[in-house]
């Protein structure tokens, strides 16, 4: 289980935020890479192909992360 999110003035803290920041760094341009936990919250609510992106060991994250890749993220963006 991830550490709860904590909000401070002009800042968000917590494991979930750290994981998201690390996944952003390794995500190919135009794609969406999210943690399995984030995907669990979206399952059944998005209509796109997803792929397991393989276990990732991320900087300053103590356990391996099992991210999900959504291809062609541009279809989620507003014009």
Strand fraction: 15-25%
The tally of strands reads: 5
- Helix count equals 2
Segments where pLDDT lies below 50 for 5+ residues? none
SS-based structural class? alpha+beta
Could you give the distance between the termini? 36 Å
Order of helices and strands, N to C? EEHEHEE
Radius of gyration over all CA atoms, rounded: 13 Å
What shape does the CA trace take? Answer: globular
Into which percent range does the helicity of residues fall? 10-25%
Instruction: Characterize the biggest β-sheet.
Output: 3 strands, antiparallel
Spatial arrangement of strands, main beta sheet: 3-5-4
Give the averaged pLDDT, no decimals.
Answer: 77
Describe this structure in words.
The chain is built from two helices and five strands. The strands form two sheets. A three-stranded antiparallel beta sheet has the order 3-5-4. It has a two-stranded antiparallel sheet with strand order 1-2. Strand 1 and strand 2 (11-13) form a beta hairpin. With 79 residues, the protein is an alpha+beta fold. The protein is 24% helix and 19% strand. The chain has helices at 15-26, 36-42, and strands spanning 6-8, 11-13, 32-34, 50-52, 68-70. The mean pLDDT is 77.
